[in-house]
Amino acid sequence: MSVINPPAAGWRGKVRYRARVLLAEPTTLIGLLLIAGFGYLVVAPLVAIVSDAVRVQYGDDFRAGAPVGSGTSYYLWRVFRSPVSGDLFWEPFWHTLVVGVGVVVFAVALGGAMAWLVTRTNVPGRKFLAGALVVPYMLPSWTFALAWLTLFKNGRSGGTPGYLESWGVRTPDWLAYGALPMIVTLGLHYYPFVLLLFGNALRRLDSQLEESARVLGARRGQAMRRIVLPLLLPSLSSATLLIFGRVLGTFGTPYILGLPTDYSLLSTTLYRSIHTRSSGVAAVIAAVIVLLGVLVVLVDMRLVREQRRFVTIGGKGSMDRATDLRRWRWPAYAAGLAVFTASVVAPLLILLLSTVTYAPGVFSADNFTLKFWVADKIPDAVGFPHGLLVGGELYEALWNSVRIVGLSAVLCGLLGLLVGYVVVRSGSPRIAGTLRQVSFLPYLVPGIAFAAAYLTLFAVPRGPIPALYGTVTLLVLVMVVTHLPYSSRSGIAAMMQLGKEPEEAAQVVGAGWLRRMWRIVIPIQKGALTTGVVLPFISGIKELSIVIMLATAGMPLLTTLSIHLVDYGYTQQANAAVLVIAAVSFAVTYLAQRLTKSNLSSGLGG
């Protein structure tokens, strides 16, 4: 249906004709440009970090016994075999495994129980519980860590004491810091993963399978073990692996709850190595985190393919009959409400109370104050000598967060839609397949490892690319790339549902590619574009693992401001900053759900 005339005679005519064809249908060219751009922004940082792990870095030439830039195995030896390898790698590695497995067990047990409650029972308030129980994931992950520290903090770390210590209860180190607090707080943050994935699988499970087993004499426990759980194994395994992969890249919680007792995970060890300028060691540790992340996602992808063997959706006779809890209906509702209280209400209330009291845990009238919010001067607070709302630090961080995250979210949404367009419309299967895989690659890399890779690549000038460390450009780039898998998958799914007919009709009347995109594709796909913008914004506004190594003192964000206040020991102001982040996250999530006419708990209950 092309309106382009045949080429004129001669090579000049052929060139003009090919140029006109390219301008009229530039999908292939755009695909090649996207592959080249993503190759540099996604693949090159990973190559750079692996390269740094096997090349002598500046200042290490004497220890490595080789000139700077030459090949070496010194960093591999130092991380894995040297006398300090236990502190550098092996102890944090085992700590990461312990915390990761513990979080998985905690989140699966809690999230699985709640998923069964809101999808397979007649518990009262199913719709409310289905929505309320996913709220913890909207909060910054270290919200729970700060709440835990506010409650259980002992004298090992300085600053304001915890509630229990102010009441005369001496909390042991194992309860205040280390593995147990990390497992509980991260488990409370990540159990909505299980709730959503496991809950949707439970909702699709035909209850006739279970009832048939009961008719044949199987007890309820036998039917659950022999029929229900095997059918749900793929979704349960997927949730397990995704949570473990998230724990690999998380930073805030291990930093807050591990620093006082030097209980390090791989993420905090990586951060420490970079800040001590041990770039070669940091490169090795980052490469290990990347490898673990890749293995986790590859196993998950294998399980998703295996899921085809587990057909759980029935035909016309499929049933979704809820289990009658009888007299246990209201106790079950109370249990769900208790989980919501423990994972949302209690942490936020503890943080809020800490910001409006002088001494923790004392609730007399003369102990309440708003000075940590609005005081012009707070005695003995040298690093942050005023209330959070008074100085310019909060507003600068808020402005930086909104403009950087907002710009990256808009770019991410547009790129995601463009990737979807090229993948679906491209006439080249190679271009479509390559672009699809490259745009998904950042999903394989834990956040803090990707930040380390970007620091390696962009800290110094490389060819025509200047050093970008400390600039808005670098923060925008890393946020766009890390959230690209979500927006690109949204764009691909949306474009697969849009036929070519509207564009072909516009092309017949002479509309060029840009005009067709602006007047046809984008208006039709505004829902997918909105989702591709809003979801990266929600994730980015509470992001810490990615930005902690890339945001400088001159470029504070809300998340880095909160962590720096923790470093200063200003507990009240740090907690207040987290409440601001939570408020922004809630507001954006609410607006996103109104704009997209969707909700995070879609399909679970009610």
- Portion in strands: under 5%
Radius of gyration over C-alpha positions, nearest whole angstrom: 27 Å
Class by alpha and beta content: mainly alpha
Low-pLDDT ranges = 310-319
Mean of residue pLDDT values: 82
The first-level CATH class name of the largest domain: Mainly Alpha
What summary fits the major beta sheet?
Answer: none
Total separate domains:
2
CATH second-level architecture of the largest domain = Orthogonal Bundle
Which of globular, elongated, flat, extended, rod-shaped describes the shape? globular
Beta strands, count: 0
Count of alpha/pi helices: 26
- CATH superfamily (homologous) name of the largest domain: MetI-like
C-alpha termini separation? 49 Å
Short key terms for the protein model shown above:
MetI-like fold, mainly alpha, 2 domains, 606 residues, 68% helix
Provide an overview of this structure:
The chain is mainly alpha-helical. The protein has two domains: 37-48 and 372-600, MetI-like (MetI-like fold, Orthogonal Bundle); 88-346, MetI-like fold (Orthogonal Bundle), CATH 1.10.3720.10. 68% of the residues lie in helices and 0% in strands. It contains 26 helices and no strands. The chain has helices at residues 11-24, 27-53, 61-64, 74-80, 85-120, 126-132, 142-152, 163-166, 173-176, 179-204, 207-215, 220-249, 252-258, 266-275, 279-306, 329-355, 371-374, 393-425, 429-440, 447-458, 472-496, 501-508, 513-524, 526-541, 558-568, 571-596. Helix 2 crosses helix 19. The two termini are 49 Å apart. The model is unreliable at 310-319 (pLDDT under 50).
